[in-house]
Amino acid sequence: MTFAGSIQASRNPARCTPAGFGLVIPIAHRLTETVQKATETALANMGALGARVFRDATLDGFVEVFRDTGLTVIAPVTHTDRKTGKLEFSDGFRDPAEIAERLSQVERSVILDLTTCYSVQLVEEIKKWEGSRIEPVAATDTVLDLELQMMYYEAVVRLLAKAGAKASYRELVGALWNSLPEVLKRVLA
Question: Which CATH architecture fits 12-188?
Fold first, then answer.
């Protein structure tokens, strides 16, 4: 598994608690029963720690989440078409350029954790918008199984809860990402 768009220098030293973490699930209605159960368990665990979950988001709904001043970090868990780079929302697939344009209109600083399938193209589009207040933290150039994404985000929220208000999201996620290759080697061995 290759991870691209490594954790970059931050304009935003964002401190984050679970209450400042928003997880957007645009396509929860399409999950298989087994994956649905695992996803619901992870979402319940994150919610119990204070994270906020937004379900069945359209592109408009996704952009609206960025206007919630209580959120420091937003993480979409969505399917991305490998060939086109389009991300799936409950109202259909959307082009990364369209998403980046819509996000460029957000008037506050928000960290965007893109630990989701093939998200590098969206990061590149966001970077094109000079003055954008959206700061991508991480991106992948590969498929990430939904259950793996849920485990990752649940680990992030648990780490945020343990660290409390002193947690730097960027540093926490950087440490987690740096440990993933070793953890995956042990799990896959």
Answer: 3-Layer(aba) Sandwich (3.40)
